[in-house]
Amino acid sequence: MNSLPYVSNGHRVNTQGHLVPEEQVREIDKLRDELVRTLIARAQFLAATIAEEKKQYFSEIDAFVYLSLREYGVERGGEKGNVTLMSYDGRYKIVRAVSELIRFDERLQAAKALIDACLNDWTAESRTELRTIVQDAFRVDQAQNIRTQQVLGLRRFSIEDERWKRAMTAISESIQIVGSKSYVRFYERIGNTQQWRQIPLDIATAGTP
Known about the structure:
Elements: E1 7-8, E2 11-13, E3 19-21, H1 27-70, E4 83-86, E5 92-104, H2 107-121, H3 124-137, H4 148-153, H5 162-174, E6 175-189, E7 196-198
Antiparallel strand pairs: 1-2, 2-3, 4-5, 5-6, 6-7
Helix pairs in contact: 2-5
């Protein structure tokens, strides 16, 4: 995209960055252009409003948690953790969640080699399902990143092979916490059931036209 003004001295800038006289631009193209720019401006305003509102959500939740802790003589300290706030009638709840961003260092390669050695020695008939799970765990996603949760999930298997145990140790020791990301989600109860419906704040899922 170019940075020239889209209308200048009776001309409009096209997608190639060329100045096209207004009289040569079809009316339907002008109307489309105006519609897109109007909706984009509104979307940008909405995005800025949501970003500011999100900061306010976290600030008010944090302030309430601090207030609640003070009733027990506890001062706030350390990292903000997960918390769920429920309305008095139990109809609504707010969940603040903190998700750690995990990466693996080079020791993951040692774990993979040990696991491969186990799979190669075990009989295919008795370990077919596990082989599929392992292969899926070490398959990268579309962004070429290791599938973190799938790799960590391998540690739930109770296998006595000493190589497998060393592999699980290598996975645990290869974990690097590189940051965290906080989320806030809003829910309402579905009727009188124990099920919850998330209140969508994503414009793509917030209701249908």
